[in-house]
Amino acid sequence: MFVVLYVISMVIITAIIVGFYQKATNAICKSKKNLTGRTAIVTGGTNGMGLRIATDFASRGARVIVACPFIDEGTQGRNVIVDKTGNSDVVFKMLDLASLASVRSFAKEILETEDRLDILINNAGVGVGVDRLTKDGLNFIMQVNYFGHFLLTLLLLPLLLKTGTPSEPARVVNTSSILHNIGIINFDQMNSLKYWYTIQLYGNSKLCLILFAHELAKKLKGKNVVINTVDPGAVGTGIFNCVGSFFGVLISYFFKNFYKTPWEGAQTAIHVALDNKAGKVSGEFFKNCELTRARSAAYNDRLSAKLWDESVRCVKLDSAEVKECLTPRL
User: Fold this and answer.
1) Which domain holds residue 153?
2) What are phi and psi of 254, to 5 degrees?
3) pLDDT higher than 90, residue 13
4) What is the pLDDT of residues 293-306, one digit of tens each?
């Protein structure tokens, strides 16, 4: 018993020491870029890091579209952004990433109503604790965190391609995690139930987002859209509620105070969306507002190409649609 308590105590002390170092070295986006006349979409932009990202963009004058599957949260989030920034050009739209039909409906509406799209932040996500299939036959965690964003990005690409210019490319930012390091790509079991621990599914989804960016960057080479991925760090947000309200609040409180608040966690995504140097690279990985490297598997060309083909199949895109997605909107 003494040994167990000693080990637990050492783990806690180590985590606190690391946390103090993290707090002292958290980077802040330094870009002063004005976004007047530009449009940004932030998935999960009504809570947590997404709300802070959307608020930052709105404060810079952007038209901001925040997307989530909950009417009350979406309405409240939109109102918070308007109240804090004074920018009334903030729109809430329903988007359920666990439904391919919802993703298609959302993208269709955007393409029909918006003249431009400068920034797409693929921020929304779910944590551990839910192991079920969606109506589309995909694992819930994989669909919300990865497949839904894969489809959304491709469907919105024509508008991104239309908007981007050589001097100011349109930007896509994927939110990954340090847990991509435990990610495994097993094409036979990607959407299986009761096969993975849910934390493993989460890690798998976050590795997929980096591989997706790597592959799409190759397909967009020479075009005016860049896609990069960020690791926001250990951030105290509501995503931890998936383990239960009591423990979720406790974990979130710990990370907010010893690692990153949602505002601090949002800084790398904001940096990658706005920084001039970040706009000159694609298929790369950022952490703490700096260009860095994900694990080596995230840059495997064979793996990313196979994941692309499997993802196209899973989200039910045909070859004609994929070609259309990669063509600028007139």
Assistant:
1) 2-27+36-325
2) -60, -50
3) no
4) 999 999 999 999 99
Q: Is residue 265 part of a domain?
A: yes
Residue 163 C-alpha from the chain's centroid: 21
What are the φ and ψ backbone dihedral angles of 172, each rounded to 5 degrees? Answer: -115, 130
CA angle 198, 201, 203 (to 5 degrees): 115
Strands 63-68, 90-94: pairing kind: parallel
Residue 279 contacts residue 270 (beta carbons within 8 Å): no
Is residue 195 annotated as a catalytic residue, yes or no? no
Residue partners of 99: CB distance under 8 A and separation at least 6: 134, 135, 136, 148
Residue 330 belongs to a domain: no
Across the strands, what pairs with 94? 68
Rounded to the nearest 10°, the torsion over CA 100, 102, 105, 106 is: -110
pTM tops 0.85: yes
Residues 72/97, Cβ–Cβ less than 8 Å:
no
- State whether the Cα torsion 103-105-106-110 is positive or negative: positive
Q: For the chain, what is the domain count?
A: 1
CATH number of 88's domain: 3.40.50.720
SS3 225: strand
* Residue 62: closest CA among 88, 82, 83, 35: 35
One of 6, 21, 195, 202 is an active-site residue; which one? 202
